[in-house]
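We close this part of the discussion by returning to an individual protein. Part of our work consisted of pairing the sequence of a single chain with a tokenised description of its backbone. No coordinates are needed to read the tokens, only the vocabulary itself. The amino acid sequence and the backbone structure tokens for this protein are reproduced below:
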Amino acid sequence: MKKRTYEVALDKAWELLRAIGKTGEAKIDFLGEGYTVDFDRKTVMKRGQSAPVKEYYRVLILHYLAREKAVSVAEKIDWIGFQDLESGKFYYSAFAQRSLARLNRKFSQNPRALWEKAEKLNPVELTLGDFGFRVQAFPKIWVAVIYWQGDEEVSQQFDLLFNREIAQIYSTEDVVVLGQTVVGYLSRSGA
């Protein structure tokens, strides 16, 4: 039987973590929630819960843990767009459909409602676009949500930006999933 994409990605992530000597447990925060990774048992659990987390959360957490030690975060955030990532132009339509279109559908009538949705993530207001803020997805990964109001010539739109270090931690495909996950969180949470 052929393995599903996430199963293959999880198997490879566990192998990589074993190869770099990860054993025991690690605690990690992701989108304001605490998770415990048990490298020996190959489990990722949300703290205080007994069921494993969603496969794509596990992949993002494991890939982060496998590469985050090699990255030091700059004092000043250097923002990049999705298309600035390696093969970002190739994957942009998937990213736009899964993340940006969802933001536009859900929040185009009231973009500032996003601030309330992000409240649990301690958003930091940005002076980008007509309205923007950043949230911390992982300890070394920031995501900026930017809204451009538009006018009679250009339609309103949202964009997601990432701190440049994301390219050292994640593949472009992972960034598609991360964008989708952040937007999903904002669409469901809060007020």
About this structure: The CA atoms of residues 45 and 52 lie 5 Å apart. Residues 5-70 form one domain. The first helix runs from residue 5 to 19.
